[in-house]
Design a protein that fits this description.
18 helices; binds protoporphyrin IX containing FE; 2 domains; five-stranded mixed sheet; metal ion binding; alpha+beta; membrane; about 55% helix; monooxygenase; single chain; three-stranded antiparallel sheet; Cytochrome P450; Cytochrome p450; oxidoreductase
Length: about 500
């Protein structure tokens, strides 16, 4: 633009300068005013958020930043591989039994120690009920399903015992054994090096697909498995449902899994109603036949939500334990030797081809202790949440109705008061009467305790039997770092070198 035209448009040079100066000052002052108002607002929220109502003797602790609370520190300590520090620091600073914080946007009290666990687990449905962050509810329950997670689990308790009772578990031994053998032959034997974490996930997912809904086709299993990473990432994400966010990806991935599930459920329902198929004893047939108090069957979408929830509850948890059994056995040759001896004895008593049975599982006493010690040191689930349904007092402090409570495995599993030399990997802790009650809680406790604990142990022991009787192994990265996100993950997926026995 020429100078003449510019001058005509803007007036003389001086008036242009005055105008620009006035405009800049205006902008500067308005920004100052805006920042002033904004910071006072944040300050007021901060004061309000952390204020301590005089009338209630709330537990000690601080709630951190508005909205975020102390979530950033909670998450970042896990990512640094030290999730128990969040609890330990506050136990030292405030109280060894409980402290106040804010997580998932909620007023929260963290209960610590064996007596706090006992109090919480025995007051389920009296003072507290199970609660999950809204992200989990939104992803695991479809918009077409009108129930919430509390309703969901109540219904679940109606058909799940049938699927998980000891007689049913006995029937799964051979299926799990068969699938472990198949997995090892297909994915482990042909290689001298493998990454343990993805392969363990493959095994537990295949077992779940087979035993939950009789799906064996590997392409179909892969179609289910593929969206799971996004679902898992969405579960504990920031609850902003906007294209591109982890939460949004989680919701869409869960919908894709439901779309895969619905035709399977429909087909099985019609085969069952036409009596062309007998109930197979898998989870899906228990669900299709289960009725509520009024004799009403579940809708297809309700069943799809429940299978999705169970795939989530069972798959990453169990595969994490398998991964860490392999991780710790590589580091502890004496423990490995004892596991090998126990498993070889079982194998020799049967010959190479014969499948495992329920009696064999009962003989795996030492290996079971190893699995327990892994569950203590690398628990796949950090704990769970409850919602307070009426004001109550614990350890002299009041916890108001509506507040959330978090119990954490880290408040006991690594406390030297309960476990001598807590960092030491020592399966002998589980010999005899084992740890004190309410100190070893990888599956929770009370009425909401994980109903799949024995299913998981079975699946893990069967895989370990097949692995140790075929291979020995070495870690490729001896000091591979472990992060907690929130489950423990070896950052390189635990690459190992394999050699046949
Ligand atoms: C090593 C593997 C597993 C671990 C560490 C684990 C851990 C947990 C924990 C800590 C809870 C929360 C308990 C509470 O709210 O107090 C839970 C709940 C649950 N788990 Fe597991 N779990 C595992 C495997 C499984 C398996 C294999 C299944 C199913 C076959 C399963 C099904 C469930 C269900 C349905 C719930 C909800 C129970 C309710 O709210 O009433 N879990 N699990």
């Amino acid at each position: 633009m020429s100078k003449a035209i510019y001058a005509r448009l803007t007036g003389s040079g001086f008036s242009t300068f005055v105008l620009c100066f006035a405009f800049a000052m205006n902008l500067f002052l308005s920004s100052l005013l805006f920042l002033g108002v904004l910071s006072s607002f944040i300050f007021l929220i901060f004061i309000f958020h952390n204020r301590r109502p005089n009338s209630l003797n709330l537990p000690p602790g601080k709630k951190g930043w508005p909205v975020l609370g102390e979530a950033v520190e909670f998450v970042s300590l896990g990512r640094k591989g030290n999730p128990e520090k969040f609890i330990d620091d506050r136990k030292k600073k405030y109280s060894s039994e409980l402290f106040k914080t804010s997580l998932a946007g909620e007023n929260m009290v963290v209960f610590c120690g064996a007596s706090a666990n006992k109090f919480l687990f025995s007051n389920e449905n009296k003072l507290v009920v199970s609660w999950w962050p809204p992200t989990i509810e939104k992803i695991t329950i479809s918009s077409k399903n009108t129930t919430n997670t509390i309703g969901e689990t109540k219904q679940m308790r109606r058909y799940l015992p049938e699927f998980l009772k000891p007689e049913a578990l006995q029937r799964y031994v051979e299926v799990m054994d068969c699938m472990a053998r198949y997995q090892l032959e297909a994915e482990w034997i042909p290689n001298t090096q493998v990454k343990v974490l993805p392969l363990s996930k493959k095994y537990t997912f295949a077992v779940a697909c087979k035993l939950f809904m009789n799906v064996e086709d590997s392409e179909q299993v892969t179609r289910f498995a593929h969206p799971f990473t996004s679902v898992m990432a969405g579960l504990l994400s920031v609850p902003i449902n906007f294209p591109g966010t982890a939460f949004n990806r989680g919701i869409r991935a869960a919908n894709r899994i439901r779309e895969e599930l619905l035709p399977i459920i429909r087909q099985r329902r019609s085969l069952l109603s036409e009596k062309k198929e007998m109930a197979t004893g898998d989870l899906l047939s228990h669900m299709l036949l289960a009725t509520d108090e009024d004799g009403k069957f579940m809708s297809e979408m309700e069943i799809a939500d429940k299978i999705l929830g169970l795939l989530l509850a069972s798959h990453d948890t169990t595969s994490t334990v398998i991964t860490f059994v392999i991780y710790y056995l590589a580091d502890h040759p004496r423990v490995y030797a004892q596991v090998l001896e126990e498993q070889m004895e079982i194998r020799k008593s049967k010959g190479p081809e014969k499948m495992l049975n329920w009696d064999d599982i009962q003989k795996m006493k030492y290996s079971r202790n190893v699995v327990n010690e892994v569950l203590r040191l690398a628990p796949p689930s950090q704990g769970a949440f409850k919602e307070v349904i009426s004001d109550f007092t614990f350890a002299g402090f009041t916890i108001p109705k509506g507040w959330k409570v978090h119990w954490s495995v880290y408040s006991t599993h690594k406390d030297p008061k309960y476990f001598l030399n807590p960092e030491k990997f020592d399966p002998s802790r589980f010999e005899g009467s084992g740890p004190l009650p309410f100190t070893f809680v990888p599956f929770g406790g009370g009425p909401r305790m994980c109903p799949g604990s024995e299913f998981a142990r079975l699946e893990i022991l069967i895989f370990i039997h097949n692995l140790v009787t075929k291979f020995k192994w070495k870690k490729i990265i001896p000091d591979e770092k472990v992060i907690f996100d929130p489950a423990p993950i070896p950052v390189n997926d635990l690459p190992i070198r394999l050699a046949s026995l």
